[in-house]
Every structure is written in C-alpha cells, then in structure tokens.
Amino acid sequence: MQQVVHDPDRMRALVNEARAAGQRVGFVPTMGALHAGHTSLVAQAARECDRVAVSIFVNPMQFGPQEDFSRYPRTLAADTALLAAHDVDWIYAPEVSDVYPPGDATRIVVGGPAVLFEGERRPGHFDGVATVVCKLFLAVPADTAYFGAKDWQQTLVVKRLVCDLGLPIRIIVCPTMREPDGLAMSSRNAYLSVADRPRAVGLSKSLHRAAGLWSAGADTATIEQAMRETLSAHGVVVDYAALADPESLEPVPDDAARAVALVAGRLGSTRLIDNMELPARVTPQRDTKR
User: Fold this and answer.
1) Contact 275/260 with Cβ under 8 angstroms?
2) Which candidate, 181, 186, 125, 183, places its Cα nearest to that of 157?
3) Which domains occur in the chain, in start order?
4) Are 272 and 235 within 8 A, CB to CB?
5) 235-278 confidence digits (pLDDT tens)
6) What is the pLDDT, as a whole number, of residue 285?
7) Catalytic residue IDs
8) How many CB atoms lie within 10 A of CB 37?
9) b vs e for 196-207, b when ≥16 Cβ sit within 10 Å of the residue's Cβ?
10) Within its chain, how far is the Cα of 70 from the centroid?
11) Phi, psi (5° rounding) for residue 36?
12) Cβ(272)–Cβ(178) under 8 Å?
C-alpha cells in the first residue's frame, strides 16, 4: 500500500529495512506536477526493482532570483492520486525545513559538465541540483535512481556527483517522453499560452533537423545555424542551439563521431529545453602521414 512519508529519518528507515530484507529499491526524484514522462520512470523502476520510492520536492536552491520558484506547480494531491495507479510504495514529500534545516550552510559546488549551457545561464543552478540530489540520496538510500534524458546536462551532473563522491547508487537514464507532436513532456509546458503551444514544437523540429544534417555529414557550424533558424521560424527566442560531446558537453569538431544536440529557448515567459543524442556516424580517417 502506498505511503506518503514526510520525515527523512522515517523514509531512510523504510528503505534500509527493505534492502536488509533483500529487496531492491528504485528511486525516482521529481519536483511534482507529474506527467507521463515521470510515470515512465516509475514503470521502469517497478520492472527492475522490488520496491519503488518517488520524491516530490520543489527545491528552492536550484531556482535563481528571477526564476519561477513561486509559481512552479505544487500538486501533491493530484500527484499522489496519479501514483496510486502505479507500483509505488513510498512518496517522499519533505518540507523545505526537513531538507534545509535551520542554520543550513552547506552546498555542493559542481564543475565539469555543469559549467556550460544551463550552468552559464543559470548561475548556481547545478550547485542546487547536486546539493538536493545528494540529500535525497541520503534520505532515500536506494539501489538505483531513475532520471529522464530530457534534462541531459542534469543527468551528466548527477552521474559526476555519484562518481566523485562515491555514492552507493546506480543511475539509470530513461528516454525522453514526448507529446504526439514531438514536444518533450515537461511540467513547464503547462505555462504555455494557447498561441505559444503549437510554436513549442520548434524545439523538437530543430533537433530532427540537426539529426538529418548530422547524418548527411554537415559540419557543426552549419548544423547549429540550421537549428537556430528552425527555432526562430517557430517564434522561439533562442538561448542556445549547439552540438556538444555527449559526456563532457565540450564543443565537438566537424569530424566527431558522436554528439548531442541541445536547445533552449523562450516562448513568452516560458523557458523550455530539449536535446537529442545524434546517431553515431563513420568519420573519415585522418591522414597522419608526414
């Protein structure tokens, strides 16, 4: 039977008890306002584990001063009802004071894959993500945690965090779930106006255009320009449209065999991101003869 747990010590005890009994525990961290993308993560966790925990916590530390923390949807009752139809054992829904107790003064500062793209545009964002993820992993000491590929950069930051701190948890990245027209599912899609919603498909269209050009052998600059043009044609104000190394997020040379296409932009007051890992391609051998 599904339980809603607010106390981190109680949550930790429940997970440890299950694992001591030989049960594998899967964990899906979320900020709530759940949709089919989240439930796809829950479904994979349920297939691979004996018990499943889902956290619902809107983390104030990953929002900047001018961002949407105050209006971010908080729908715990609806989220709980949605998860009741899935194989979820525990919903961990702590208060802010449980996660950041009085006198809280410790943060995790991240570099590496956190530096570019969202890291440049949202200073401190990934420090807030890494700090809360570490706290959640301590409160929910599961075997495996499940994240969606839509937040590609975030998944790299979390993997780096787990590796660097030696956290005893496995990270699984699941495919992005999309609406029928290709828009990546996101809690922020609810902010889109009636007029802006059709234009939002420009993000996924720009990624498909990148994939086509990439497979045809186009150079990086040509692909990135085409991505920007596609976004602009749909009325998206472009934050970035770039190809990057899938692991480091560093720029890729024209002869790279692997890349991820990343886009971010605004429609009205709504900011959306998306990405697509491009298919591996055969590149010409470099002539090393002198």
Assistant:
1) yes
2) 125
3) 3-174 (3.40.50.620), 187-277 (3.30.1300.10)
4) no
5) 999 999 999 999 999 999 999 999 999 999 999 999 999 999 99
6) 54
7) 38
8) 21
9) bbebbbbbbbbb
10) 20
11) -65, -25
12) no
